[in-house]
Every structure is written in structure tokens, then in C-alpha cells.
Amino acid sequence: MLLAALLATVLTNDVALFVVIPLTLALHRLNPLPIKRLVSVIALAVNAGSVLTPLGNPQNLFLWQSSGVSFLAFTCALAPLAAVLMAMLLILTALLFGGRALDLSHDAASQDVDRPLIVVTVLAFIAFVVLADMHRAPLALLAVVAGYGVWRRAAVLTIDWGLLLIFALMFVVLRSAAMLPAIHAMLTGFDLRDARHLFAAGALLSQGISNVPATIVLAEFSSNWRVLAYAVSVGGFGLGIGSLANLIAVRLTGLRGIWGPFHLISLPFFVLAAGAGAGLLHYLGRLG
Fold first, then answer.
1. Calpha distance 215→203 (Å, rounded)
2. Tens digits of per-residue pLDDT, 89-124?
3. N or C: which end of the chain has fewer CB within 10 A?
4. How do the domains of the chain map onto residue ranges?
5. pLDDT at res. 244
6. Cα separation, 224 vs 218, whole angstroms
7. CA–CA separation, 93 vs 71, rounded Å?
8. In the structure, what pLDDT confidence band is assigned to residue 224 with cuts at 50, 70 and 90?
């Protein structure tokens, strides 16, 4: 769970799952695990860990770039919520799982590690973040793609460009949809200038259309990026559609009957997380 949360802070919650879920399934083959419960908690973990940084999830990336605040300022603003969510997850993990160590003695297979690729990628990642923080993300993207295109073309070709295109189009289409007269009138009626209304709208709308689209839509009606970030972060819990990461986690397992155990854990966690988020914002003086 901690590995999933940590990776999500820098790789985004969705990408972290592509690392952790196959590892979890491999461990399950070596040692039978309560796999449905474990995958459910891992999905919660990547959503909780991703709250901390602008790189943690697509909605944070969007709010970071649109707000104009620095990487450090955004991280500090979300740190209290991330800390509370992780504390809740640690308690949940202790309640759901025992402390029995895994026997991995049967795993004798060795794997080659491309160390040059790891080192260069870490350095390129740091450089990309620095340039993005300076609002030079297009330049950083061009440099990374061009560099890998020359040095490791296979790495560029294996990227799921279709998925990236879907995300880009989602930002454009949903931003335009938010300005349709009917939708604009409906959302305007909720008076989203009120931070309490904005928090409730972000958390609940995420349950219906997922937290990334909810962020894009609501950002058209309020510049209060901090409250919106808290709202859609807790909105990623609850129903499976609340976050794309939930759908990816379940999809990667290929297990039948997992949605029941998932919602048995995720729905109560959403209620507690929403209460914790609202309480933190009130304590910080952001809800009035």
C-alpha cells in the first residue's frame, strides 16, 4: 500500500497501478493473498498518495498549471489532506490485513535491469518538473520526446499515445461543455463562489462523472483551486467511477466479483475522507 501511494506522488495514480497491480498479482501466485481486498486498498492508496503533488493525478496537473502557483506551494497546500488520508489508510490496512510475512523463497527468476535507462529517466524527470514549474512544459515535452526518439526510440513507440490523446481531448471538450447555456445556468445556480458549495459540488460531481472531468467543469466557475483540489481528491473515493484509477485497478486484476468488496471498503472511506477534507478546510479557514 505504501509503495503504491509513494509511486503515485510522482508517476500519477494511474501509472502507479500499472506497476503495483502486476506485482501484487505475481505475489498472489507465490503466496495466496486476500486479493480483492488488497486491490481495493491499493486503489485507495494511489488516490490518497496522488493528492500530495501536482504530478500525482491529472486533476492536480490541471489545477497546478491553471492556478499559476509554484510546485512547492501546491504541494504544501495539499500536504495536510494527504497526511490525513494516509493516516486513515494505515489504520484501514492494519484492520483489514494481518502481519504475516510473505514467503518469497519460490521466486528464483532473475530479471535484467536497464540501469542507464533508469538513471537518464530520473534525471530527465527532474528536469521536466523544473521546466514545468517555470511554465515551460511544451519545451520540456519536446526535449524529452526528441531525446528519447534519438536515444531509445522503442521507449517512445511503446507509449500509449492514444490514452494521452484521450486525456488531452477530455480537457478541451469538457471545458467547452461547461460553457453550454444549460449546464452553465445549472451550475451557476449552485453559487460555487461559496467555498462550501464548491467543496460539496466537487466531491459529489466526481461520483457521477469522475474527478478529472469534475475538476475541468467546476474550474470554469471558481478560481478557488485549493478547495476544488480538496473536493475532487476525496471525490476519487466512493463509487468506482469516482476516479479512473479505480477502474484501472479493477480492470488490471481481471477478477470477477471484485466490485462488491471494493465498494464495501471505498464508500465508507469516501464518507470519512469527505468529512476529513471539509474539517481540514474549515480549520484552515478556507470554508468560512
1. 10
2. 999 999 999 777 777 666 666 778 888 888 998 899
3. C
4. 2-99+113-283
5. 86
6. 10
7. 30
8. very high
Sign of CA dihedral 223, 56, 119, 161: negative
Determine the average pLDDT of the residues in 28-47: 92
d(CA 261, CA 265): 6
Residue 198 has pLDDT above 80, yes or no: yes
